[in-house]
Amino acid sequence: MKQIVIDVLRNYHTQKINFTYKSTNGWTYLICANDFRHVAGAIEDGRINVARGVVPAGVSAEYSIRKNGNKDANTLYIGQSNDAPNVFRSVLVHESVHASFDLGRIQMPWLDNEAIAYIAQGCYLLSAGADSKVAEQVLLGLKVAEDLQQGNNQSLWIDMLKDALLNDPHYKPYINGDFMGDG
Ligand SMILES: [Zn+2]
Fold first, then answer.
1. Residue 49 CA to ligand 1 centre (angstroms)
2. How far is the CA of 45 from the centre of ligand 1 (A)?
């Protein structure tokens, strides 16, 4: 199961991801091939676990930073790819962004962390092609990715993406808080 994730993180579409993101508080983050290689390496040597369960079957995944209820620390929970392998792989890329910031012990607003994850996911889908319908945030991430491809890293879609995150009840419990990576 580990290999499913490792293969995605090392594949052509993921390794092409390369962009900078300016956060609300003025920090600039560079997201590139190396970040995904580091996460793949951490999965390979067991610093990050990959497990089934917790998330619903299908095109879903969730990275757990620290132990919380039935979720273990440093664990990427994955569903099954079913009939939309590209969207499934893009979800793994999204969750690996969270894992990468955790490995790097990064502290930052959750809003920026999620926005970056959706943009990386959009970059993956722009390259690989979306093979099913996707959620609003994924579509907005794709729009940002299109602008990035045109050389515009100040895309107006980034604000739309942040608004969509702030207004989605799913993100309410934490989106205004800080992401605290602990390695
Ligand atoms: Zn996320």
1. 17
2. 23
